[in-house]
Q: What sequence folds into this?
């Protein structure tokens, strides 16, 4: 089972940028589809982006399409989320998650990192 640790969150002004990182342990990281999610207080968890093991296929939710970019470096066991043009409504706890390509559900989750966007 892969273990995940997010970093890179913080406080940023509206219009600014942040890059989140998710470091994974385990030699099988390269086999996993990786995703980024977020959850704001009182709201449901939202899937933001996903990337296949090879990086040749990505998914973006409508709320972040064109502003966020997911990428991965399998040699470093790390997946990234570059967030540009941040808005106050992007404020949330951000989580990375992993699932095997054949699985429907994400089976491994990080502890989350807080992102706060001030207006």
A:
């Amino acid at each position: 089972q892969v273990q995940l640790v997010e970093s890179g969150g913080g406080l940023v002004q509206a219009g600014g940028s942040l890059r989140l990182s998710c470091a994974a342990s385990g030699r099988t990281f390269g086999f996993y589809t990786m995703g980024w999610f977020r959850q704001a207080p009182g709201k449901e968890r939202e899937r933001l982006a996903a990337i296949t093991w090879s990086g040749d296929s990505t998914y973006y939710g409508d709320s972040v399409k064109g502003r966020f970019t997911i990428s991965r470096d399998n040699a470093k066991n790390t997946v990234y989320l570059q967030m540009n043009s941040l808005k106050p409504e992007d404020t949330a706890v951000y989580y990375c998650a992993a699932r095997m390509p054949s699985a429907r559900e994400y089976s491994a989750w990080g502890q989350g990192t807080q992102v706060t966007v001030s207006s």
Q: What stands out?
A: Residues 43 and 92 are 10 Å apart (CA to CA).
